[in-house]
User: What shape does this take?
Amino acid sequence: VSDPRSLELIRELARDLEPVRPIAPLLRALAAVVLVWAAAAAAALAAAGVQPQLFAGLYAAPGVAAVLAGLAVAGLGGLVASLALAVPGREDVARGGLAIGAAGLAVAAGIGTLLFATSPAAAAISRAGGSDHLACLVFATAVGVFPSAGVVVFAARAAAARPLVLVLAAAAGAAALGAVAAKLSCARADYAHLAVGHVLAPAVAALALALPLLFALRRLQRWPER
Amino acid sequence: VEAADDRAERWRSWMIAAQRGDRDAYQHLLVDLLPFVRQMVLARTGDGAAADDVTQEVLLSIHSARHTYRPERPLVPWVRAIARNATFDWARRRARRREVELDAAAEASGDSSPQGRMLSRGLERALRSLPDAQREAVVLLKLEGLSVKEAAARSGISEGAVKLRAHRGYRALRDLIGRELL
Assistant: This one.
């Protein structure tokens, strides 16, 4: 027998029903977020300049290309996961995105560490360069702010069930893609910089952006009722 | 016995109609979903009274998240996910209840100890941080002790809207108070 309070609640909910527009499909949302990333990366590269020797460098060191590919996979996986976490019933997609993102990050970190550990000292650390590391970390994080904010806007309109995981995945994923873009303008060819300035970027961005993004998500979720 | 596929397809078509504003289809859908949801919730809570409460939360969540259903997707996994999330929230709240009860006890006893004052301020801060509409519903129902009907009349909104706002307010308060206690 159904609880009479539930039946009463159903009558009230039905009485107050208003038409709603379904949220965008995940693929379209992902395309929009990737476009935002591309625009942010293009603007940042226009400001910072593109490294002219980039492709020659990648050809000479295929390990670096593999690290960047791992970061790109991690980025897409994180963004897919964060978008899917905002939609009930898409947990399988979210889990898949998290798994792919983690795998991409593991590849990037593994190969980055291997390159650093097995290379001659001169190639591993060509010169000290804390400011270069910091510049690439800031570049990656700054480029990552915009797509992760896009994810938060989508999630606020949807129904985020695990907001902390969602913002961590969004920030790490967006910054992983940002780290790939940062490499396009980065003049450093040593493996120490690759590891510190690029592979670490998702973790740094997740730490730096998670709380502001969580705060923004909570505010945006409440906004329509104000 | 009706095939599960037919039932799922009927629910899906009702949901699509509900998204367009069809109140009859929505009421049919929720009434039809009620035993399905309650059975799922009961299997996880193992407690009839809790299952009724959580089922109502699921209905409210379905209502507030109905725009997240995509018409080309099956409805049942969407409903299951909402029910599962509501049950997880219930389990988390139950685990936290002891701490929140300490908070309430400190409030009720006018506890003047530093911990009591801290908890009172925490509750006050949490209430202040709610959106106006939610805070009004919580204050009218819980602090002023009005019925849903009286609160609706006072606010000039429907009873359903009062319940919905109060539900969201309670949930936000639980999160905020839980965070204060951590």
Q: What stands out?
A: The mean pLDDT of chain B is 81. Residues 50 and 142 of chain B are 20 Å apart (CA to CA).
